[in-house]
Structure formats: C-alpha cells, structure tokens
Design a protein that fits this description.
Layout (H helix, E strand, L loop, with lengths): L5 H5 L7 H29 L3 H12 L4 E3 H8 L3 H13 L3 E6 L2 E9 L1 H21 L6 H18 L13
Antiparallel strand pairs: 1-3, 2-3
C-alpha cells in the first residue's frame, strides 16, 4: 500500500510507455542524423551550416530580399543572439548586409546581397537533392502527408500565441 500523501503521488512523472519510448528515441535519432546529413552536405558544397542556409532562404523569399532581424529570428526559430552571430558570419562572407530601420532606431534589417542570392542559387539544387534522398524518397505519399500533419500539430502545440510565451525569438 502506498503511504505517500496524495499530493506526492499526483506529482509522480507519467513515464513513457515502451512504445512511446521507442517512438521518441526513433524521432530523436532520425532528426539528429538528418540535421547532421544536411549540415555536412551544405558545409561540403557551400561552406555553411544548415541554419545559415535557412536564413538565406528566408531572406530570398522575403519582399525585397530583406527582413527585420526580429522577424528573421522568428522564421528561423532561433534566439536573437544566435541570429546576430549568424548574420555577422554571413556579412563577413558578403552574403548578407545589415541596414538600420528608418522607423525604429533600435531595429535593423538583414538584406540578402546579390552575392548571397547567387550562392543560394548554386547551393539549392544539391540541398534539395539531399533532402529528397534523405527523407522524401524513403516515404510513401501517404507517409509524407501524415508526417506533415503530425509535425504541424507538434509545432502548433509548442508555439503558443499568448503574451509572455517563452519562444526562442523572444529571448
């Protein structure tokens, strides 16, 4: 008989079942290997990590190839500090430049340069091929659809809209 107070029993962790543990570990294993695979491909082909490639893509897709730094951090799902470091490295390569925001003295824009756009254009085909080979060619159309739906549900649950949410781009 459990003699612990009811409040102590209520706080005991709800451990993962064996099947949940198997799924969780498979997910962690696959995402770690996928990120490593994509990082190695991009380092080999363009001398940049995957996160930098994502920043270049976000800027290329933005109107005028420019985004406020805060918006870019939100799109990349990274902290402002990590973004600032990444943009500094991309600036050194000549792929991005910063511009002050005329309407906000503290705000800045990240702007994709013509050179950065060219690098992205040369790098994209190999990256798309790596993504396709590592993920989409391994899944049926039904599995692809299910994976997309699952990841949207997980992301929505981790990205609350209420004020004070603890999200990377707000730190």
């Amino acid at each position: 008989m459990n003699t612990a107070p009811a409040s102590a029993r209520a706080e005991e962790p709800r451990w993962l079942t064996d099947e949940e543990q198997r799924i969780w570990r498979s997910y962690m294993h696959a995402t770690t290997l996928l990120e490593d695979h994509l990082d190695r491909q991009l380092q080999r082909d363009a001398g940049m990590p995957h996160i930098y490639y994502g920043l270049l893509v976000a800027l290329a897709e933005a109107p005028g190839r420019r985004l406020r730094m805060t918006e870019l951090a939100m799109k990349a799902k990274i902290t402002r500090s990590r973004l600032s470091h990444a943009i500094a490295r991309l600036e050194k390569n000549g792929w991005v430049r910063r511009e002050d925001c005329p309407s906000d003295k503290r705000g800045q824009f990240a702007v994709l340069t013509d050179e950065g756009f060219e690098v992205l254009g040369r790098t994209a085909p190999g990256h798309v091929s790596a993504v396709r080979q590592a993920m989409f060619e391994r899944l049926s159309p039904e599995q692809q659809k299910a994976l997309g739906e699952i990841m949207e549900i997980v992301a929505e649950g981790l990205q609350p809209n209420e004020a004070g949410a603890d999200l990377p781009w707000l730190r």
